[in-house]
Amino acid sequence: MKPRVEDRVSLIMTDNPICLEQSQVLKEVKEIMSKHAVRHIPVKKGKNLVGIISKADIDRIKYMEAGAGEFVSADFFDVLTVGHVMTKSVNTLQHDDTIKEAAEILSLGSYHALPVMDGEDIVGIVTTTDLLIYLLKLYNV
Fold first, then answer.
1. CATH of the domain at 45
2. Strands 93-94 and 48-54, how do they pair?
3. In angstroms, rounded to a whole number, what is the distance separating the alpha carbons of residues 80 and 84?
4. How many CA atoms lie within 13 A of 52 on its CB side?
5. Is residue 3 part of a domain?
6. Model pTM?
7. How many distinct structural domains can be found in the chain?
């Protein structure tokens, strides 16, 4: 496999990603991430992308909950919703953007996953892992 400047992100993205509604409780998110072995999930309000939630977001809540101990009577994961902890300003890609463009955004280190759009519709997600797998295939001779 030889890299081509015109290779599109749709070549390496995961199609039809699992999406969440911002009103879902975090307990559901933990279960979904575990069941489907995913670390990033786009968040929608109706049909519109409004954010993304990651395993790191969930881990932060676990840490906060552990620190709260006896001072908190409710389980954070039963009370907090996706909308409370998601990243709201999400960089996205269009399905016909290049892999190079995805790499440029991911290399900034702010994100490890980018929702892929076709206009206003979420059609995929690309992660740093997807990018690394693509690069490894380039060097497999």
1. 3.10.580.10
2. unpaired
3. 6
4. 25
5. no
6. 0.86
7. 1
